[in-house]
Amino acid sequence: MKRNKVDTKQLIEVSRGGLLERRSFLKSGAMFVATIAAPSMSQAASAKDFSALPEHMKTPGTPSEAYGQPSKYEKDVHRKGQAFFQSGIFTGALTPLEKLRGIITPSGLHFTIHHNGIPDIASDNHQLMIHGMVDKPLKWDVSTLLNYPMVSRIQFLECSGNSAANAVSDDPVQASTTSLHGQVSCSEWTGVPLKLLLDEAGIKPKAQWVMCEGADGGSHVRNVPLQKLYDDAILAFYQNGERIRPDQGYPVRLFLPGFEGNMNVKWIHRMEVVDSPSQSKDEQSLYAEFTKEGALHQFTFFMDVKSVITSPSGEQQLPANGIYEIAGLAWSGRGRVKRVEVSADAGKTWADATLEGPVMNKSFVRFTIPWRWRGNNAILLSRATDEFGNIQPTRAEWKAKNADYTFNHYNAINAWHVSSAGKVSNFYV
């Protein structure tokens, strides 16, 4: 069958810098340059290319494993370990965002941060207690809780310190998307709505907060507004269809959609209903922000609207001039992402990216837009807006409100510089 000649004249640029209208791109029949991770270009095939069978077609394969594992040829797709303190006690592992597609983060690649290591907790030995300003203090073992009604939602989780390097470093840190922004992931979380247990215990009229404590060696504690627990909080037992893993809080964690990651207390074992927050050690030190005027902000809760271009992105290399797909992720802790705009000329002009559906509440959404790179220097930006009209700020706007040493809740627009040689690096605009 004869293929029609590609008509690149049909390509319509929707902004300066080479961003293309998606419909005109598809209509033109033009092709993307080979992916950045695999720079080899397509090659013509002849009949003899199909006559010689590869070795793996000549012998039987191996049987399936009891628990399936990724291909051994995908060894470069892994989390990046990171120690935040020299002691190594406060450690974590970062999600390789630029190596994934879709919106679901595999359980084994979901980022994790723990303050005192991962406790070894057998499900049979774990209990949850609710006490304090309640009609009747109660405790449940895990087997009992697993019989309660459950709900499932696909939602993101982000550390309050994600992207911190761009908040505090005077010069752009040259690193990958994983290293800069890898403290955010998105999974399907399944668990018991907290309101069921709170109603069973009976909440006193003056109660306003709940002190939530984990069963780890550091007794991590965060105070959560009672209203949030009644809204959409769950006790999460499952992640992506299987029981949550130890570094995600096995056998059970608190999950607070849209709230900063450390409030989603792992290995949760005690919830004390109170009339005012207890001011835990973490709330007085790590998880508070200072404004430019020196005012202290505590209990800021929400992770605000944000987006990151994952391809092309930091430390990647464009193999040749041509048409690429700019792709990335956007999310908002307050609701759904309504719009993502992309710029290829440092923000002088913008174009709307396509949002790949479904667009869900407090979840990742993937955005894409075709881009023609002509081998020139380019600055790529993405800017997200959520359903309530909250817009991702510039770095200058974010820095104008916060003290120079503040880094929590950094959601400013990220920029990638593409050199004329095709090298992609972190950049400030």
TrEMBL record:
GO terms for biological process: sulfur compound metabolic process. Residues 115-280 form the Oxidoreductase molybdopterin-binding domain. The keyword tRNA-binding does not apply. It holds the Pfam family Oxidored_molyb. The keyword Amino-acid biosynthesis does not apply. Keywords: Metal-binding, Molybdenum, Oxidoreductase. GO terms for molecular function: heme binding; molybdenum ion binding; molybdopterin cofactor binding; sulfite oxidase activity. It comes from the Bacteria. Residues 302-401 form the Moybdenum cofactor oxidoreductase dimerisation domain. Its cofactor is Mo-molybdopterin. Signal peptide: none annotated. PANTHER family: SULFITE OXIDASE, MITOCHONDRIAL (PTHR19372:SF7), SULFITE REDUCTASE (PTHR19372). This is Sulfur oxidation molybdopterin C protein SoxC.
